[in-house]
């Protein structure tokens, strides 16, 4: 005949669940911190790219379209505000803001 777990077995199972929960929280925190670091690096690289190719972005409509398509795919909207970073960097915010209105 099989014996059911007693109080000790229940306490051991609860302790194991707590350890797994803590381990899961630690892994989630590490992944979140790593993702934030990667996003910050990507943003700085994107800003450098925009600085280097500012004239090309402003003058070449095909290149500007590709740049905005790339930004949209990664969730960066350089046209979101006419007073934002991208407007200062590229100098296109006011025009597109008015165009949107």
Secondary structure layout plus pairing:
Blueprint: H1 7-52, H2 54-59, H3 61-74, H4 85-90, H5 93-100
Describe the structure.
This is Vacuolar protein sorting-associated protein. Pfam families: EAP30 (PF04157). InterPro entries: ESCRT-2_cplx_Snf8 (IPR016689), Snf8/Vps36 (IPR040608), WH_DNA-bd_sf (IPR036390). The relative contact order is 0.07. The chain has helices at residues 7-52, 54-59, 61-74, 85-90, 93-100. It is rod-shaped, with a radius of gyration of 25 Å. The chain contains 5 helices and no strands. The mean pLDDT is 78. With 101 residues, the protein is mainly α. Helices cover 79% and strands 0% of the residues. The longest helix has 46 residues, at 7-52. The protein has 2 domains: 1-52; 53-101, no CATH class.
What keywords describe this structure?
Vacuolar protein sorting-associated protein, ESCRT-2_cplx_Snf8, single chain, 0% strand, rod-shaped
Summarize the structure.
This protein is an all-alpha fold. 79% of the residues lie in helices and 0% in strands.
Overall structural domain count: 2
Oligomer: single chain
Our measurement of the CA-to-CA distance between the termini, rounded to an integer number of angstroms, reads 79 Å
Strand content: under 5%
The helix/strand class is mainly alpha
Q: What is the 3D form?
A: rod-shaped
Percentage of helical residues?
Answer: over 70%
- Tell me the major beta sheet: none
- Calculate Rg over CA atoms: 25 Å
Distinct helical segment count: 5
> What's the SSE pattern?
HHHHH
Low-confidence stretches: none
The number of distinct β-strands equals: 0
Mean pLDDT: 78
